[in-house]
Specification:
The protein has about 220 residues and is an alpha+beta fold. Helix content is about 25%, strand content about 30%.
């Protein structure tokens, strides 16, 4: 048998083995689903989470992940999206592999929901904004800084776009450079403590506005 023939034979064997492995995996997944019921998306800690340390945007990417597990094994109140933990801190130590449950999270220690960073009836929401270069450049902690979010819409019919304040004096929980990096003209990921109405207004604006600008109050 020539070297080329042997190589083709090994390649064919590898493809057959891969196909068999995929079939076994699919069969196993179907057996799990049929044996334990439907699967649900959950948030799992991949690193040890210290008590009393608020979750920053970097934690969402590096310490939390999404998995799909049988619904029957999921504790009540388990988060479905890592972003739901932004600005909140665990009320107890959490080991790697732990479910992230809403009842285990709270506003930063010493700041109650009514009088702290979040404020009453507010939730952490991440929005892409412009105009955050000055705050990013300082490197200082931004949690609790009050900001206005200004929306600038696209022009229509040859006229000028509209600019208006969509959310005034909202608490800023965290700030990180956007995908285009820091610097003039760049964007930033701002995590804000918003009411439901403010969140819906800004999320809608992200889809149609030319830009959302962050303006510190002071």
């Amino acid at each position: 048998m020539s070297r080329r023939t042997r190589a083709l034979a090994f390649l064919a064997l590898a493809l057959i083995t891969a196909a068999l492995a995929a079939g076994i995996a699919d069969s196993y997944g179907s057996q799990v689903a049929s044996g334990y019921g439907p699967l649900r998306q959950v948030v799992i800690a991949t690193k040890h989470l210290d008590k009393g340390v608020a979750r920053e945007p970097a934690d969402v990417a590096g310490a939390l992940e999404l998995r799909r597990v049988p619904t029957r094994f999921v504790p009540s109140g388990t988060l479905r999206d890592p972003r739901e933990a932004l600005g909140l801190e665990p009320s107890a130590e959490l080991d790697p592999g732990s479910y992230l449950v809403a009842s285990q999270l709270r506003p930063p220690h010493g700041r109650s929901e009514a009088g702290g960073v979040l404020g009453p009836h507010r939730h952490p929401v991440e929005i892409t904004v412009s105009g955050a270069e000055a705050l990013l450049a300082t490197g200082a902690t931004v949690a609790g800084v009050k900001v206005d979010i200004v929306v600038t819409t696209e022009s229509s019919g040859g006229g000028s776009g509209r600019t208006y304040v969509a959310a005034a004096a909202v608490p800023l929980l965290a700030l990180a450079p956007g995908t285009d990096g820091p610097g003039p003209g760049g964007t930033a990921a701002a995590t804000l403590a918003l009411t439901k109405r403010q969140a819906l207004r800004l999320i809608a604006a992200e889809s149609f506005a030319r830009k959302l600008t962050l303006l510190p109050e002071n």
